[in-house]
Every structure is written in C-alpha cells, then in structure tokens.
Amino acid sequence: MVLYKDGKVYLKIVYWGMGGSGKTTILKTLYKITKESKKDIIPIGELQIIEKDSGATLYFDRGLFQSTKQKKVFYRVYTVAGQKGFSPLRRKIFAKTEDQTDAVILVIDSQTKFLQDNVESLLELKNMARNRLINEIPMIVMLNKRDLEDIIDVEDFKLVLKDEKLWYEPDNKLYIWNPLIYSSCALYEKHKEIYRSFHECARRTVLYHIYGDGKAPSEEEILDKSIVNI
Description:
Distance between the termini: 27 Å
Radius of gyration: 17 Å
CATH superfamily: P-loop containing nucleotide triphosphate hydrolases
Shape: globular
CATH architecture: 3-Layer(aba) Sandwich
C-alpha cells in the first residue's frame, strides 16, 4: 500500500525467499553499490539488520532508498526471515493491513537440491498475496547463487511459474508484466544483477502506481497517460 507523508511517496518492496537464499546479502550488497556508485537510486541512512549470530535473519532487515530523478519517491525495502517457523512474522511484514507490500523480489537459491524448498516459499507467497501477484503486485525473480555448481535451469523455473499461473502468454494483457528472471550472485565481490533487478522492480512499482492506479497498466493506459502528461 503506497504511503504518502509530507508530500513524499513511499513504496514498499520486499525481498522474499526461503531461508539461506541470500536476501540479507543482496540487501547489503545493494546498499554498498548504491552508496559507493552514482546510481538512479541511493540509500538514505543505514541499514537495519536484525540477525542471529549465525547470520540468519531473526525478524527482518530494512533499508530506505531514494530516487535521484524523482526525489519525492522513496523505497522502503525489507527482507523476510525465510525459515519455516517464521511464517507469522512474514505475514506481518508482507501483508500488514495498514502497510501492505507494493512489490516483491523473489529470491531463489539456485541449488537444485533446494528446488522444493523454493517452490514451497513461492506457494506461501502466492497464498499470502491472494491472487494479487503481477496483477497488483509487480514481481521480479532472482535466481541467486549462480556461481555454484548443480543449479536450477532458468527455463525449468519458468515452468514452475507457469504451473502456478504466474506466467502469461502473449495474448494476455499481463504478458508485458511477466516476472523478469535475473541470474544473480549476491556477494559484493562478485555482485551480478543486484542493482539492475532492484531498479527494474522499482521502475515497475512506479508504473503500476502512476499509470494503473495500483494495478498492472496496459500498454494503452501507459501511452494515453504519457500523452496527457506531455
């Protein structure tokens, strides 16, 4: 749910995924990239990381980022604890009545041995979103840990999305909003697609808000409103 405060717009983006998929590392790397390099999105303040001694997220991680082109637009970025016992906390972070999620980045542990765990995480997300994924909540997919061996094929995970009706054919108006699938590595030393995937998610979130009044806009709606705004 878009938050308006003091003339500013705050959009909520959540990194979702199974425990150990790399969500916290991705957020830390995103923060470091945007802090040290000139980007369209910059961090505001410090990250809030709540984790166990093992490094696993205990509750959530959180950061605030700002668009440098639209300075009144801010992104409140969260990760959720992925362990199975933290489902109530995930619901609180993702679907809190007065502070619902505007967009989601699904982080997948690419190791084939975790395929079923990834699918279960996706199913929980789908159930929690209540048929709003893609139609109202833009979704980006990150196949993380691509630097490892024995990993899930991109096309195979696309089949998972199709099975769960989260992938549309060209004759569907939601086809242009199919989740982009990024092959990523979260480690800062090897970082791959960390910023680009977040930037695309942020871009889609703004388009949903401006052109679709909170829903996936059609190409015609984007064109019509763009012409009006000229």
